[in-house]
Write a structure and sequence with these properties.
It contains six helices and six strands, in the order H-E-H-E-E-H-E-E-E-H-H-H. The chain has two domains: 121 residues, OB fold (Dihydrolipoamide Acetyltransferase, E2P) (Beta Barrel); 41 residues, no CATH class. 21% of the residues are buried. The protein is an alpha+beta fold. The chain has a five-stranded mixed barrel with strand order 1-2-3-5-4.
């Protein structure tokens, strides 16, 4: 019986090590598989880490970035910032390229979907700093980079890249003919 208890204790250690909720002030979104997560990490370029393709300054904003978690050397993918538009977190992480940071947000784990170490970044700060930076600058950066796209409605309805892709591939991504067939069938 003592051996079974010891074996169960060993199995429980990895599960306990994955709880990063201590001290987290992240706002919950009610997403399936979410848990609050605050941890120390280094901001890295995942292509550099995995394939040795290492441009200067983590690609100068042209690449998705990742967090290499200090506690267990696990690569965490921050795919969203704190804004409800589900924009990426690369704008928030770029100023911290190669630096040690502390982050606070939501970690998504859903074995059924295969989601593991997907992160929704809400706050970030340089290691040793007392000052958190809110992860909400993406739309501000977008507006600054696209002054001619000002107007009403969500950014993606005015984004020149999105509009060019719709012009080229249609609303469904299958071409103008597929769009016309769809509209005819569904909205006659």
């Amino acid at each position: 019986m003592r051996q079974v208890a010891f074996a169960m204790a060993l199995l429980a250690v990895p599960a306990a090590a994955q709880d990063f909720s201590d001290g987290s002030e992240a706002r919950e979104w009610g997403l399936y598989g979410e848990s609050k997560a605050r941890f120390a990490a280094t901001v890295v370029d995942p292509l550099c880490e995995l394939a040795g393709d290492c441009p200067d300054n983590c690609g100068d904003g042209r690449r998705q970035l990742a967090l290499l978690r200090t506690e267990d050397d696990v690569m965490v993918l921050p795919l969203k910032n704190a804004q409800p538009v589900f924009s990426g977190a690369a704008n928030e992480l770029a100023p911290f390229c190669g630096q040690a940071v502390e982050v606070d947000g939501l970690l998504i784990t859903d074995e059924d979907l295969g989601a593991r170490n997907v992160y929704l970044l809400q706050k970030i700060r340089a290691a040793g700093s007392d000052e958190w930076v809110a992860a909400n600058k993406w739309t501000k950066d977008w507006a600054e980079a696209n002054p001619d796209a000002a107007g009403e409605g969500p950014w993606f309805r005015r984004d020149p890249r999105v509009l060019a892709e719709i012009e080229k591939e249609g609303w469904l991504g299958l071409g103008a003919e597929a769009d016309a067939d769809f509209l005819e069938e569904w909205f006659r």
